[in-house]
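Protein record
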Amino acid sequence: MVGRRHGSEEIADKLAQADQLAAKGKNQHEISKALGISVMTYHRWRKQRGPMRQTRDGDDHRQPLLAPVVDDEPRYTPPAGGRSRQLDRMEELEQENARLRRLVTDLLLEKVGLEEELKYRDTGRDPRARRG
């Protein structure tokens, strides 16, 4: 089954419909089936919306305590005046990783060259000598 993204308005509409179904006594599986989404998606949307509270005039007019999370909002904002320490540390580690890779490559090439030289010494042939 291919997943698809739902717009924030569509999510809000489906959650309102889910609240009505829940008020009628439907369980989560029945609600998610009626909405055409998985139970996990239903849980994720409810979690994004935040906890609910009832208004004084009845339970049909429930409102979220927190504003719903919109997909377009950034999840992380770096501190003012500069980049985050984690980002700096990540770049530092990437540079160190690149240096270590070059070092290992150089050592491996040197090792291969020494092994070849040792092999040719044991056989009595010089690898640099030309056949003529």
